[in-house]
Amino acid sequence: MNWDSIEKIAHDVSSGKVTAESLVERSLGAIEETKEYNAILAVSKIRALERAREIDQKVKNGENIGKLAGVPFIAKDNFLTFDTTTTASSHMLENFHAPYQATAIERLEAAGAIMVAKSNLDSFAHGSSTENSAFGPTLNPLDKSKVPGGSSGGSAAAVALKIAPFALGTDTGGSIRLPASFCGVVGYKPTYGLVSRYGVVAMASSTDVIGPITTSVEDAAVVLDVMSGKDRFDGTTIDRDLDIYDGKPFSLKGKKIGLLKEYLSSGIDEGVKKVVLDTVEKIKAQGAEIVEVSIPSISLSLACYYVLVPAEVSSNLSRYDGQRYGLSDTTAKNLDESFEKSRAAGFEAENKRRIMIGTYVLSSGYYDAYYKKAQIVRTKLINEFNTVFEKVDYLIGPTAPMTAFEIGKNVDDQLQMYLADIMTVSANLVGIPSISIPAGNANSMPVGLQLMAPQKSDRNLLALAAAIEKEIE
Q: Out of 44, 133, 155, 175, which one is annotated catalytic?
Protein backbone atom coordinates (compact mmCIF):
# COMPACT_ATOMS: atom_id res chain seq x y z
CA MET A 1 0.00 0.00 0.00
CA ASN A 2 1.29 3.44 -0.97
CA TRP A 3 1.94 6.08 1.65
CA ASP A 4 0.11 9.39 1.47
CA SER A 5 2.17 12.49 0.80
CA ILE A 6 4.35 13.61 3.71
CA GLU A 7 2.31 16.78 4.02
CA LYS A 8 -0.95 14.80 4.32
CA ILE A 9 0.51 12.29 6.80
CA ALA A 10 1.70 15.11 9.06
CA HIS A 11 -1.65 16.89 8.77
CA ASP A 12 -3.57 13.71 9.64
CA VAL A 13 -1.38 13.10 12.70
CA SER A 14 -1.62 16.71 13.88
CA SER A 15 -5.41 16.68 13.50
CA GLY A 16 -5.75 13.37 15.34
CA LYS A 17 -7.13 11.56 12.30
CA VAL A 18 -4.37 8.93 12.54
CA THR A 19 -1.86 8.19 15.28
CA ALA A 20 1.91 8.37 14.95
CA GLU A 21 2.05 5.01 16.73
CA SER A 22 -0.03 3.33 14.01
CA LEU A 23 2.28 4.74 11.33
CA VAL A 24 5.38 3.45 13.11
CA GLU A 25 3.72 0.05 13.54
CA ARG A 26 2.94 0.00 9.82
CA SER A 27 6.55 0.82 8.98
CA LEU A 28 7.90 -1.83 11.38
CA GLY A 29 5.54 -4.36 9.82
CA ALA A 30 6.81 -3.51 6.33
CA ILE A 31 10.38 -4.06 7.51
CA GLU A 32 9.47 -7.58 8.64
CA GLU A 33 7.65 -8.33 5.40
CA THR A 34 10.56 -7.24 3.18
CA LYS A 35 13.51 -8.78 5.02
CA GLU A 36 14.52 -10.81 1.97
CA TYR A 37 15.65 -7.62 0.19
CA ASN A 38 18.24 -6.84 2.90
CA ALA A 39 17.48 -3.13 2.72
CA ILE A 40 17.47 -2.64 6.51
CA LEU A 41 20.40 -3.26 8.87
CA ALA A 42 19.02 -2.13 12.24
CA VAL A 43 15.60 -1.27 13.66
CA SER A 44 14.92 1.42 16.28
CA LYS A 45 11.70 -0.17 17.51
CA ILE A 46 11.69 0.88 21.17
CA ARG A 47 12.73 4.51 20.62
CA ALA A 48 10.49 4.93 17.56
CA LEU A 49 7.41 3.72 19.42
CA GLU A 50 8.27 5.88 22.44
CA ARG A 51 8.58 8.97 20.25
CA ALA A 52 5.33 8.11 18.45
CA ARG A 53 3.45 7.88 21.76
CA GLU A 54 4.94 11.18 22.90
CA ILE A 55 3.75 12.83 19.69
CA ASP A 56 0.25 11.34 20.03
CA GLN A 57 0.05 12.66 23.59
CA LYS A 58 1.10 16.13 22.46
CA VAL A 59 -1.63 16.05 19.81
CA LYS A 60 -4.18 15.24 22.54
CA ASN A 61 -2.79 18.15 24.57
CA GLY A 62 -3.29 20.49 21.62
CA GLU A 63 0.41 21.14 21.13
CA ASN A 64 2.03 21.98 17.79
CA ILE A 65 4.18 19.02 16.72
CA GLY A 66 5.94 20.24 13.60
CA LYS A 67 6.01 20.01 9.83
CA LEU A 68 6.77 16.27 9.81
CA ALA A 69 4.51 15.20 12.69
CA GLY A 70 4.60 11.42 13.06
CA VAL A 71 6.18 10.71 9.67
CA PRO A 72 8.38 7.57 9.83
CA PHE A 73 11.69 7.60 7.96
CA ILE A 74 14.79 5.51 7.29
CA ALA A 75 18.36 6.78 7.76
CA LYS A 76 21.29 5.44 5.78
CA ASP A 77 23.58 3.65 8.21
CA ASN A 78 26.33 6.24 7.96
CA PHE A 79 24.22 8.78 9.92
CA LEU A 80 24.95 8.86 13.65
CA THR A 81 21.76 8.00 15.53
CA PHE A 82 20.66 7.00 19.01
CA ASP A 83 19.25 3.55 19.84
CA THR A 84 21.00 1.72 16.97
CA THR A 85 24.55 1.04 15.91
CA THR A 86 26.08 3.17 13.17
CA THR A 87 28.12 0.71 11.11
CA ALA A 88 28.56 2.38 7.71
CA SER A 89 28.01 -1.25 6.59
CA SER A 90 31.52 -2.13 7.76
CA HIS A 91 33.05 -4.57 10.21
CA MET A 92 35.21 -1.65 11.37
CA LEU A 93 32.17 0.01 13.01
CA GLU A 94 30.05 -3.10 13.49
CA ASN A 95 29.48 -2.45 17.21
CA PHE A 96 29.76 1.35 17.25
CA HIS A 97 27.08 3.26 19.19
CA ALA A 98 27.18 6.99 18.51
CA PRO A 99 27.32 9.38 21.51
CA TYR A 100 25.35 12.03 19.58
CA GLN A 101 23.09 12.34 16.53
CA ALA A 102 23.70 13.89 13.12
CA THR A 103 22.36 17.43 12.67
CA ALA A 104 20.05 16.25 9.86
CA ILE A 105 18.51 13.63 12.18
CA GLU A 106 18.11 16.18 14.98
CA ARG A 107 16.34 18.65 12.69
CA LEU A 108 13.98 16.01 11.31
CA GLU A 109 13.11 14.77 14.80
CA ALA A 110 12.58 18.34 16.01
CA ALA A 111 9.98 18.66 13.24
CA GLY A 112 8.20 15.51 14.47
CA ALA A 113 9.64 12.86 12.12
CA ILE A 114 10.41 9.43 13.59
CA MET A 115 13.42 7.37 12.56
CA VAL A 116 12.42 3.71 12.50
CA ALA A 117 15.47 1.99 11.01
CA LYS A 118 18.92 2.21 9.40
CA SER A 119 19.47 1.14 5.81
CA ASN A 120 22.17 -0.87 4.05
CA LEU A 121 24.87 0.76 1.91
CA ASP A 122 28.18 0.05 0.24
CA SER A 123 30.72 -0.04 3.07
CA PHE A 124 31.72 3.54 3.98
CA ALA A 125 29.59 4.56 0.94
CA HIS A 126 32.24 3.23 -1.46
CA GLY A 127 30.31 1.79 -4.39
CA SER A 128 27.56 2.00 -6.96
CA SER A 129 25.59 -1.18 -6.31
CA THR A 130 25.31 -1.85 -2.53
CA GLU A 131 27.24 -5.07 -3.16
CA ASN A 132 30.20 -3.83 -1.11
CA SER A 133 28.34 -4.00 2.21
CA ALA A 134 29.93 -6.10 4.94
CA PHE A 135 26.42 -7.41 5.66
CA GLY A 136 25.49 -8.61 2.17
CA PRO A 137 23.95 -6.91 -0.87
CA THR A 138 20.56 -5.25 -1.04
CA LEU A 139 18.27 -6.59 -3.78
CA ASN A 140 16.45 -4.37 -6.25
CA PRO A 141 12.76 -4.14 -5.20
CA LEU A 142 11.61 -4.58 -8.82
CA ASP A 143 13.87 -7.51 -9.71
CA LYS A 144 15.71 -9.47 -7.02
CA SER A 145 18.38 -10.56 -9.50
CA LYS A 146 19.51 -6.96 -9.98
CA VAL A 147 21.29 -4.35 -7.86
CA PRO A 148 19.45 -1.33 -6.38
CA GLY A 149 22.36 1.01 -7.17
CA GLY A 150 24.62 2.55 -4.58
CA SER A 151 25.85 3.60 -2.30
CA SER A 152 22.42 4.54 -0.86
CA GLY A 153 20.88 1.35 -2.24
CA GLY A 154 19.22 0.36 1.02
CA SER A 155 17.55 3.77 1.34
CA ALA A 156 16.22 3.75 -2.25
CA ALA A 157 15.05 0.15 -1.90
CA ALA A 158 13.30 0.98 1.41
CA VAL A 159 11.31 3.79 -0.23
CA ALA A 160 10.47 1.66 -3.29
CA LEU A 161 9.37 -1.16 -0.95
CA LYS A 162 7.09 1.34 0.84
CA ILE A 163 8.77 0.75 4.21
CA ALA A 164 8.60 4.49 4.94
CA PRO A 165 7.56 7.69 3.13
CA PHE A 166 11.18 8.87 2.87
CA ALA A 167 14.75 7.87 3.53
CA LEU A 168 18.01 9.75 3.89
CA GLY A 169 21.00 9.17 1.66
CA THR A 170 24.42 10.65 1.03
CA ASP A 171 25.68 11.60 -2.42
CA THR A 172 29.43 11.88 -3.05
CA GLY A 173 29.36 11.11 -6.77
CA GLY A 174 25.79 9.99 -7.43
CA SER A 175 25.01 7.81 -4.43
CA ILE A 176 21.48 9.22 -4.01
CA ARG A 177 20.59 9.72 -7.67
CA LEU A 178 21.89 6.41 -9.07
CA PRO A 179 19.90 4.16 -6.69
CA ALA A 180 16.87 6.43 -7.15
CA SER A 181 17.17 5.83 -10.89
CA PHE A 182 17.62 2.06 -10.53
CA CYS A 183 14.70 1.71 -8.06
CA GLY A 184 12.25 4.10 -9.75
CA VAL A 185 12.05 6.74 -7.00
CA VAL A 186 13.06 10.40 -6.55
CA GLY A 187 16.58 11.20 -5.32
CA TYR A 188 17.70 14.75 -4.53
CA LYS A 189 21.28 15.99 -4.20
CA PRO A 190 21.23 19.59 -2.88
CA THR A 191 23.79 22.33 -3.46
CA TYR A 192 27.00 21.50 -1.60
CA GLY A 193 26.74 22.82 1.96
CA LEU A 194 22.96 23.32 2.01
CA VAL A 195 22.52 20.42 4.46
CA SER A 196 24.91 19.89 7.36
CA ARG A 197 27.26 16.89 7.18
CA TYR A 198 27.87 16.97 10.93
CA GLY A 199 27.39 13.52 12.40
CA VAL A 200 27.65 11.68 9.10
CA VAL A 201 30.56 9.29 8.51
CA ALA A 202 32.80 11.15 6.07
CA MET A 203 33.76 9.79 2.67
CA ALA A 204 35.11 12.70 0.60
CA SER A 205 34.53 15.97 2.44
CA SER A 206 34.61 18.28 -0.59
CA THR A 207 31.88 16.40 -2.45
CA ASP A 208 29.76 14.70 0.27
CA VAL A 209 26.14 15.91 0.28
CA ILE A 210 23.08 14.78 2.25
CA GLY A 211 19.67 14.50 0.65
CA PRO A 212 16.26 12.77 0.66
CA ILE A 213 14.94 9.80 -1.31
CA THR A 214 11.16 9.89 -1.76
CA THR A 215 8.35 8.89 -4.09
CA SER A 216 7.60 12.45 -5.23
CA VAL A 217 9.43 15.73 -5.81
CA GLU A 218 7.12 17.53 -3.39
CA ASP A 219 8.04 15.10 -0.61
CA ALA A 220 11.74 15.62 -1.34
CA ALA A 221 11.26 19.38 -1.06
CA VAL A 222 9.41 19.09 2.27
CA VAL A 223 12.25 17.04 3.78
CA LEU A 224 14.91 19.36 2.37
CA ASP A 225 13.10 22.37 3.82
CA VAL A 226 13.43 20.91 7.32
CA MET A 227 17.08 19.81 7.02
CA SER A 228 18.62 22.76 5.18
CA GLY A 229 20.49 25.78 6.48
CA LYS A 230 23.62 26.75 8.35
CA ASP A 231 24.95 24.64 11.21
CA ARG A 232 27.57 25.86 13.67
CA PHE A 233 29.04 22.35 13.77
CA ASP A 234 29.74 22.32 10.01
CA GLY A 235 31.77 25.23 8.66
CA THR A 236 30.93 24.34 5.04
CA THR A 237 27.19 24.97 5.45
CA ILE A 238 25.52 27.83 3.59
CA ASP A 239 22.40 29.95 4.08
CA ARG A 240 19.19 28.41 2.82
CA ASP A 241 16.67 30.12 0.53
CA LEU A 242 14.47 32.57 2.43
CA ASP A 243 11.38 31.07 0.76
CA ILE A 244 10.39 27.53 1.63
CA TYR A 245 11.38 24.59 -0.55
CA ASP A 246 7.88 23.36 -1.38
CA GLY A 247 8.36 21.43 -4.62
CA LYS A 248 5.31 23.00 -6.24
CA PRO A 249 5.47 22.91 -10.07
CA PHE A 250 5.81 26.06 -12.15
CA SER A 251 5.02 26.61 -15.81
CA LEU A 252 7.56 25.12 -18.22
CA LYS A 253 6.77 27.80 -20.79
CA GLY A 254 9.85 29.85 -21.64
CA LYS A 255 12.24 27.84 -19.47
CA LYS A 256 15.61 27.36 -21.20
CA ILE A 257 16.88 23.83 -20.64
CA GLY A 258 20.19 22.53 -21.95
CA LEU A 259 20.28 18.96 -23.27
CA LEU A 260 23.77 17.67 -22.51
CA LYS A 261 25.34 16.45 -25.76
CA GLU A 262 28.01 14.39 -23.98
CA TYR A 263 25.39 12.43 -22.02
CA LEU A 264 23.66 11.16 -25.16
CA SER A 265 26.75 10.02 -27.04
CA SER A 266 28.16 6.51 -27.40
CA GLY A 267 28.00 4.22 -24.37
CA ILE A 268 24.41 4.96 -23.38
CA ASP A 269 21.81 2.19 -23.54
CA GLU A 270 19.45 2.87 -26.47
CA GLY A 271 16.39 2.22 -24.30
CA VAL A 272 17.56 4.77 -21.74
CA LYS A 273 18.28 7.29 -24.49
CA LYS A 274 14.78 6.86 -25.97
CA VAL A 275 13.07 7.40 -22.59
CA VAL A 276 15.06 10.62 -22.03
CA LEU A 277 14.41 11.99 -25.54
CA ASP A 278 10.70 11.13 -25.33
CA THR A 279 10.52 13.09 -22.06
CA VAL A 280 12.34 16.02 -23.68
CA GLU A 281 9.63 16.11 -26.37
CA LYS A 282 6.91 16.28 -23.69
CA ILE A 283 8.74 19.20 -22.07
CA LYS A 284 9.05 21.00 -25.42
CA ALA A 285 5.32 20.53 -25.99
CA GLN A 286 4.71 22.55 -22.80
CA GLY A 287 6.66 25.52 -24.16
CA ALA A 288 10.12 24.89 -22.75
CA GLU A 289 13.05 25.82 -24.97
CA ILE A 290 15.43 22.89 -25.34
CA VAL A 291 18.97 23.76 -26.45
CA GLU A 292 21.70 21.20 -27.09
CA VAL A 293 24.76 22.22 -25.08
CA SER A 294 28.26 20.89 -24.67
CA ILE A 295 30.59 20.79 -21.66
CA PRO A 296 33.84 19.49 -23.20
CA SER A 297 35.61 18.67 -19.92
CA ILE A 298 32.71 16.56 -18.69
CA SER A 299 34.36 13.59 -20.39
CA LEU A 300 37.21 13.97 -17.88
CA SER A 301 34.98 14.21 -14.82
CA LEU A 302 34.98 10.50 -13.91
CA ALA A 303 38.79 10.27 -14.10
CA CYS A 304 39.05 13.51 -12.10
CA TYR A 305 36.61 12.15 -9.50
CA TYR A 306 38.52 8.88 -9.06
CA VAL A 307 41.71 10.79 -8.28
CA LEU A 308 40.29 13.40 -5.91
CA VAL A 309 37.78 11.28 -4.00
CA PRO A 310 40.16 8.39 -3.13
CA ALA A 311 42.66 11.02 -1.95
CA GLU A 312 40.07 12.36 0.51
CA VAL A 313 38.96 8.82 1.38
CA SER A 314 42.51 7.85 2.36
CA SER A 315 42.69 10.90 4.61
CA ASN A 316 39.25 10.43 6.19
CA LEU A 317 39.67 6.71 6.84
CA SER A 318 43.03 7.14 8.55
CA ARG A 319 41.14 7.73 11.82
CA TYR A 320 40.12 4.05 11.86
CA ASP A 321 43.33 2.73 13.34
CA GLY A 322 42.06 0.25 15.93
CA GLN A 323 43.13 2.49 18.81
CA ARG A 324 40.40 4.96 19.66
CA TYR A 325 37.09 3.44 18.57
CA GLY A 326 35.84 0.81 16.16
CA LEU A 327 37.31 -2.63 15.57
CA SER A 328 40.59 -3.31 17.38
CA ASP A 329 42.66 -6.46 16.98
CA THR A 330 43.67 -7.69 20.44
CA THR A 331 46.23 -10.25 19.22
CA ALA A 332 48.70 -7.67 17.88
CA LYS A 333 52.15 -7.60 19.49
CA ASN A 334 52.90 -3.94 18.67
CA LEU A 335 51.28 -0.76 17.38
CA ASP A 336 52.11 -1.31 13.70
CA GLU A 337 50.70 -4.81 13.82
CA SER A 338 47.56 -3.49 15.53
CA PHE A 339 47.05 -0.96 12.70
CA GLU A 340 47.59 -3.64 10.09
CA LYS A 341 45.37 -6.34 11.59
CA SER A 342 42.53 -3.98 12.60
CA ARG A 343 42.35 -2.41 9.14
CA ALA A 344 42.70 -5.73 7.34
CA ALA A 345 39.66 -7.09 9.19
CA GLY A 346 37.64 -3.86 9.39
CA PHE A 347 37.78 -2.63 5.80
CA GLU A 348 36.19 -4.25 2.75
CA ALA A 349 38.10 -4.79 -0.51
CA GLU A 350 36.74 -1.60 -2.11
CA ASN A 351 37.70 0.46 0.96
CA LYS A 352 41.26 -0.84 0.70
CA ARG A 353 41.36 -0.19 -3.04
CA ARG A 354 40.37 3.46 -2.60
CA ILE A 355 42.75 3.97 0.32
CA MET A 356 45.65 2.67 -1.79
CA ILE A 357 44.72 4.77 -4.82
CA GLY A 358 44.28 7.86 -2.65
CA THR A 359 47.54 7.37 -0.80
CA TYR A 360 49.33 6.86 -4.12
CA VAL A 361 48.04 10.06 -5.77
CA LEU A 362 48.98 12.09 -2.66
CA SER A 363 52.45 10.60 -2.34
CA SER A 364 55.69 12.43 -3.04
CA GLY A 365 56.49 12.42 -6.75
CA TYR A 366 52.90 11.75 -7.83
CA TYR A 367 51.02 14.61 -6.17
CA ASP A 368 51.67 17.06 -9.06
CA ALA A 369 51.05 14.44 -11.74
CA TYR A 370 47.70 13.28 -10.38
CA TYR A 371 46.11 15.19 -7.49
CA LYS A 372 47.12 18.70 -8.54
CA LYS A 373 46.22 18.04 -12.18
CA ALA A 374 42.81 16.69 -11.15
CA GLN A 375 42.15 19.87 -9.15
CA ILE A 376 42.98 21.92 -12.26
CA VAL A 377 40.50 19.84 -14.27
CA ARG A 378 37.90 20.37 -11.53
CA THR A 379 38.34 24.15 -11.77
CA LYS A 380 38.02 23.94 -15.57
CA LEU A 381 34.84 21.93 -15.17
CA ILE A 382 33.39 24.53 -12.78
CA ASN A 383 34.16 27.30 -15.28
CA GLU A 384 32.55 25.38 -18.15
CA PHE A 385 29.38 24.73 -16.14
CA ASN A 386 29.21 28.44 -15.23
CA THR A 387 29.54 29.35 -18.92
CA VAL A 388 26.73 26.97 -19.92
CA PHE A 389 24.48 28.33 -17.17
CA GLU A 390 24.83 31.78 -18.74
CA LYS A 391 23.00 30.37 -21.79
CA VAL A 392 20.44 28.05 -20.15
CA ASP A 393 18.62 27.91 -16.81
CA TYR A 394 18.84 24.14 -16.29
CA LEU A 395 20.51 21.02 -17.67
CA ILE A 396 18.84 17.72 -18.53
CA GLY A 397 20.04 14.23 -19.34
CA PRO A 398 19.99 10.63 -18.10
CA THR A 399 20.94 9.82 -14.51
CA ALA A 400 22.86 6.73 -15.62
CA PRO A 401 23.86 5.25 -18.97
CA MET A 402 22.08 2.00 -18.12
CA THR A 403 19.29 0.51 -16.04
CA ALA A 404 19.95 -1.70 -13.01
CA PHE A 405 22.43 -4.47 -13.82
CA GLU A 406 22.55 -7.99 -12.46
CA ILE A 407 24.05 -8.71 -9.03
CA GLY A 408 27.64 -9.87 -9.45
CA LYS A 409 27.94 -8.70 -13.07
CA ASN A 410 30.49 -5.93 -12.45
CA VAL A 411 32.07 -7.12 -9.20
CA ASP A 412 35.24 -8.25 -10.97
CA ASP A 413 35.30 -5.36 -13.44
CA GLN A 414 35.80 -2.20 -11.43
CA LEU A 415 35.98 0.03 -14.52
CA GLN A 416 32.48 -1.04 -15.54
CA MET A 417 31.29 -0.52 -11.97
CA TYR A 418 32.77 2.99 -11.85
CA LEU A 419 31.17 3.86 -15.21
CA ALA A 420 27.74 3.67 -13.55
CA ASP A 421 28.60 7.08 -12.00
CA ILE A 422 29.78 8.70 -15.23
CA MET A 423 26.74 11.00 -15.50
CA THR A 424 26.42 11.93 -11.83
CA VAL A 425 29.95 12.77 -10.60
CA SER A 426 30.24 16.14 -12.36
CA ALA A 427 27.44 17.71 -10.26
CA ASN A 428 29.40 16.79 -7.11
CA LEU A 429 32.70 18.10 -8.45
CA VAL A 430 31.15 21.50 -9.19
CA GLY A 431 28.81 21.58 -6.16
CA ILE A 432 25.53 22.15 -8.00
CA PRO A 433 22.10 20.73 -7.11
CA SER A 434 20.85 17.74 -9.09
CA ILE A 435 17.80 15.47 -8.99
CA SER A 436 16.81 12.12 -10.48
CA ILE A 437 13.14 11.50 -11.18
CA PRO A 438 11.55 8.38 -12.72
CA ALA A 439 10.95 8.97 -16.45
CA GLY A 440 9.80 5.58 -17.69
CA ASN A 441 11.15 2.09 -18.27
CA ALA A 442 13.75 0.40 -20.47
CA ASN A 443 14.71 -3.26 -20.34
CA SER A 444 11.71 -3.67 -17.97
CA MET A 445 13.49 -1.51 -15.36
CA PRO A 446 13.17 2.16 -14.30
CA VAL A 447 15.04 4.98 -16.05
CA GLY A 448 16.01 8.11 -14.13
CA LEU A 449 15.92 11.58 -15.69
CA GLN A 450 18.59 13.88 -14.23
CA LEU A 451 18.11 17.64 -13.89
CA MET A 452 20.76 20.13 -12.77
CA ALA A 453 20.80 23.83 -11.92
CA PRO A 454 23.34 26.47 -10.82
CA GLN A 455 24.49 26.54 -7.20
CA LYS A 456 21.86 27.68 -4.69
CA SER A 457 19.03 27.27 -7.24
CA ASP A 458 17.51 24.37 -5.29
CA ARG A 459 14.02 25.80 -4.97
CA ASN A 460 13.74 26.45 -8.72
CA LEU A 461 15.22 23.06 -9.58
CA LEU A 462 12.63 21.32 -7.41
CA ALA A 463 9.85 23.34 -9.08
CA LEU A 464 11.17 22.31 -12.52
CA ALA A 465 11.38 18.66 -11.48
CA ALA A 466 7.82 18.79 -10.13
CA ALA A 467 6.58 20.29 -13.40
CA ILE A 468 8.31 17.56 -15.44
CA GLU A 469 7.10 14.88 -13.03
CA LYS A 470 3.55 16.08 -13.73
CA GLU A 471 4.07 15.73 -17.51
CA ILE A 472 5.56 12.23 -17.18
CA GLU A 473 2.57 11.03 -15.15
A: 175
